[in-house]
Amino acid sequence: MNKVLIVEASESDRRLMAGLLVKSGYEPIAVESMEAAKEEVMKLPPGAVIVAGLRFSGGTARELVNWLKTENKNFPVIAIVERLGDTDATDVMEDHGAVAVVQRAAIDKRLPELMKKYVRDVEDVIFAKGGLIHRQSKEFCEIERTIRQIAATDVNVVIVGESGMGKEMIALEIYRQSNRFGNALKELEAGSAALVGKDNPESGRSKTYNRIKGYFNDTNGGTIIIKNVHLLDFEKQSVLLHILSEEHPDVRVICTAEPELLEMVREKTFRPTLFYYLRQLDINVPPLRHLKEDIPIIADYYLQGYATDKGEPPKRLSASTIKLLRQHSWPGNIRELKVAVLLAAQNVKGPVINANDLTICQATPIMKETLLLRDENEERRRIEDAMIQAQGIKAQAAKLLGIDRKTLSYKMRNYGME
Questions:
Q1: Which of 35, 311, 359, 403 has its CA 20 to 30 A from that of 83?
Q2: Helices 295-310/333-347 angle, 10° precision
Q3: What's the gap between Cα 215 and its chain centre?
Q4: Which domain holds residue 315?
Q5: Is 71 exposed, middle or buried (0-12, 13-18, 19+ CB in 10 A)?
Q6: For the chain, which ranges sit under pLDDT 50?
Q7: pLDDT of residue 367
Q8: Boundary residue ending a domain (245, 260, 286)
Q9: Among 64, 86, 120, which residue terminates a domain?
């Protein structure tokens, strides 16, 4: 059920609005103060709406809107005003503050109408970011099967893959299919200043503990997605480990990470104990260069979306274009493919995109030490990566892999790659 937070000083108007919203099929949460509003905001799922009186205990609608901006909370705010022409009504609408105002005398008529306009289903909000693109490769079909299995459980998950492979979309799909769907969802970027919740100096604990603990309190019963968890510094790792191992919060944690996380765990620059608390189950997402049969499907997905936005027939890829797309190594993965395809769709006037219409960046990152052969199960893929980066030149590929050319030739024959 879609949730609506009511922040209103008048008890009678809180009851009136709550009754109207229940009749219209919404789930109202009514509070009378700024402090209580902030606590409830942190628990709201995507798609919720806030209805606020101009003044209430400890704050104003304008102050609430400003606080939402500082917290990067994009919930629409509908302000309740005494008269539409008042200065206060104009003020709360300035600078894209409240999305709408409702005269108090017209609450019973206007409020249900505005709910239909601004309240959105959680699923719609999630897929507005871009949902999973269904594909045909056996690897991705296996990922979809794993998503269904993991979603049916309540365990923590780590999704590992290169940048640009849509790991966040997989995390959101697990949430969407889980029994926590509709409960609070919080997304954190481990490598940015966003991982700074509210402090509580009276607790006697460190600021880092208070802030991270605050996220868990606000998301009780819901899900936290930590993006790029390998970027957590050691202090935050320690606090997160303490919360998970000692306090056992009722919060599911889904993490995304690049492959270097596994190396960090081996080298103990990422705490192994925390890793295993987070990785009760995992999903490994292969890079796009290992899923060549999916490339035309993904490209067509973005062409269809572009055509829909423009209100025109979708452009199609010629055979030569598909061949070129499959030959490229796509170090930026799906993100890079999307840019190339949409740029071509924008520039091509006719219905067909040919190979010479594509602009593909040829600069590729230097391969790091992670290409060195250590795990026999990964050798074949690492050799494929090296050969792609070296454009098929064995001597260069061998150098990337840290072996001589003769050993590389032997391994390639052994794997039937010659």
A1: 35
A2: 50
A3: 16
A4: 290-357
A5: middle
A6: 96, 193-194, 366-374
A7: 45
A8: 286
A9: 120
Question: How far apart, in Å, are the Cα atoms of 64 and each of 54, 190, 388?
Answer: 10, 26, 53
Backbone angles phi, psi at 320, to 5 degrees: -65, -35
Q: Based on the domain organization, do 316 and 269 belong to the same domain?
A: no
Co-location of 81 and 163 in the same domain: no
Element housing 300 (H / E): helix 295-310
- What is the pTM (predicted TM-score) of this model? 0.65
What's residue 294's pLDDT?
A: 93
Q: What CATH number should be reported for the domain holding residue 189? A: 3.40.50.300
CA atoms within 13 Å, Cβ hemisphere of 30: 17
User: Residue 373: what pLDDT?
Assistant: 45
Q: How many CA atoms lie within 13 A of 84 on its CB side?
A: 8
* Alpha carbon distance, N-terminus to C-terminus of the chain: 58
Q: Mean of the per-residue pLDDT values for the chain?
A: 84
Summarised one tens digit per residue, pLDDT across range 60-100 is 888 888 888 877 787 888 888 887 766 655 666 555 467 78
The total of structural domains in the chain comes to 4
Same domain, 164 and 245: yes
34-66 pLDDT per residue, tens: 999 998 888 887 788 999 988 899 998 888 888
pLDDT at 415: 77
Calpha distance 245→274 (Å, rounded): 9
334: domain CATH number is 1.10.8.60
Nearest to 14 by CA among 89, 107, 84, 109: 107
Q: Are residues 148 and 108 in the same domain?
A: no
Residues 237 and 134 both lie in one domain: yes
Per-residue pLDDT, 363: 59
